[in-house]
Structures are given as C-alpha cells and as structure tokens.
Amino acid sequence: MLDSNSAPDDSAEGGKTHSSDQLPQLAATLKAAGDPLRLEILRLLAQDSYSVLELCRIFDLRQPALSHHLKVLAQAGLVSKRREGNNLFYRRTASSDLLQQLFHGLDQLPLTETRAATVAHIAAERAEASRRFFADYGNRFREQQELIASYSVYGPQVAQLLKPGRHALEVGPGEGEFLEELANRFGTVTALDLSKTMLERAQAFADEKGLQNIEFVCDDTRAAASRPDSSDCIVVNMVLHHTPEPAQIFHDLQKSLKPGGQLLITELHDHAQDWARDACGDLWLGFAPQQLVEWAADAGLSKGRSVHSALRNGFQIQIQEFLKV
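User: That's the sequence. What structure does it adopt?
Assistant: Structure tokens below.
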C-alpha cells in the first residue's frame, strides 16, 4: 500500500512510466511510425538492408516520395543508413522496449504477394551477381582476396576458438584451407558452397591433403537448415559480404546447429573501399560488429567471444562467436 506521502516509483518492474522529458521523443517516434506505408517499410527492413532504389522497386514509388518517408523514419531513430559506394542502404534499428513490442506484432504480418515477389527477385539478382563473379574469376580469387586479408591473417585465430565435436559445417570454404583444421578436429565435416567453381577448388585441396571425412555440397544455406540440429560447429569465413541476404544466413545456420553448438563468423568491419566490389565480388562493404550481433540475436543466438584485428591496408577483421542455447 502506498503511504499518503509517497510517490509512485517510475522505475519499479511492471510499473515503468516515461519521464516528462522522454514523452516528446516518444510521441515523435510513434508519429513517425503511424503511417501504413512507413509501417510496411519497417516490416521489410526487419529482414535485411535495402538500397533506396531497391525500396523504390519494392514499394513502386518514385525516389523523392520514398526518400521523404525514409527521412521521417531516420529522424525518429527507427532506421539507420550506411553508404555502400554510390548507394545508401537502410535497415531498421533497435529501439525501446515499447517499440520492440510494436515491432514484434508488426513482424508477424506477411508482405503482400507482389512485394514478396519483388523482394525474392532482388535477392535472386544479388545471388546471381555473386555467382557470376565466382564463375568468371574463381581462378584468380585468391590473388584478389589477399589484397584485403589473406587466410593466414584470420585462419589460425579462428582455429583457436574451435570447440571440437562430432560434426562441423563450413559455409563458403573458398580454397579449402580451413577444411584441414576442421577435418582434424571433427569426425565428419560438410563443405557447403553455392559456387561449383569454388567448391571444386576446395575439394582439390582436400584431395591433395588426403582428407577423407569431408562431404561437399553445392547449395546455399537452406540446405543446412534442412538438416536441423546436425552441427556442433559452423564456420563462416569471409563469406557474408558476398551473400545477398546476410540476416537470413543466421536463421538458416541457427536451425542447423545443435543445442550448445557454436557459430564462428569471420568478417570485415564496415569500410568505404568501394573497389572491393569489382575486384573481389563483394556485395557489402563489411559490417558493423553490432549488426552481426543483432542478426544473431534475432535468429536466437547468444554472443560469445570476439577478436578484432586491424590490417595495414585500412581494413579490419572481426571474428565473432555465437552460441545456440
């Protein structure tokens, strides 16, 4: 019972209120979200980052009209933007508990069939761009990749984080070097790659090293998701920036992990060196560490250890560990 001289405790669990100085910002945020089209934009940006031109295609809007809505959402702190070469990409940002409750309900609503089809088409275009690069330039991929970060920079550090188990999966094994680390620590290993050219190179490396416990699968991460609770450890080295839908990768791999399983992601920090698109087939110019953490959390993975290294050429490498509880 409250004493007559007592004031309510705003910080008490179950009775939180917003102080008067927070109310204007909360009102502005709710006003920005209080538009059907802007709610649809927020719903879409929960899945992935999209450029302004891609969003214009999805919502069938002229760029000035869409830019107005994005500006309103950005001013309210509901979306953030990042420059990728000449393009601006937008994504939904984490927000208050109140807005997270709003987003939870919003995210249950399906996209319209037309918009879902356009989203799928954009994802297919991104994937095809990556496939074309590796089909055309696979033979000189190692040379180009070493302009950014050679395997020797991150491979040994990733190996130190491995937790041995029965089965491991490597997504995008590249030239195959890390498969040797996995084959020596796990009973069986699966090498998964969408590029037939790169998978053949990885298999040639495994044959040269006499590695007999590796299965090679030419497919995307949906193949991993189709084998639920099968992997003790999943490794993804320098792959996400080549993939059309990085957020979806986390969801697929979470399904493939066993409870207690480990996901190790090696990636570039976000950067502005646009030449990497043409030279190395990069779809994304790296990622902010928090972006990876948010995608992992959305997929039901908890953050573990992390290692960050600066390179002489201006790039930074991050190795992030995520765990399936």
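Residues 1-18 have pLDDT under 50 and may be disordered.
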